[in-house]
Amino acid sequence: xxxxxxxxxxxxxxxxxxxxxxxxxxxxxxxxxxxxxxxxxxxxxxxxxxxxxxxxxxxxxxxxxxxxxxxxxxxxxxxxxxxx
Length: 84
Prior knowledge:
- The chain is built from 3 helices and no strands.
- By secondary structure, it is mainly alpha-helical.
- It starts with a helix and ends in a 6-residue tail after the last helix.
């Protein structure tokens, strides 16, 4: 009887709740999308300049997506899962 009670008390508790992990995965996905949007725009020939590297998607949209993703990550860490 005492051993069973000790096993119940020794159950592992996660640091974050289910809600926190959902927001963390959403933030991680948005960060990954931001980095994917930043990729590309290079040239196969180093002597040829490709102006696609300065496209609005790489200069404005992608860094904004990454910052929004980091903001969601901070929110997920600070979120209290027990609050209704």
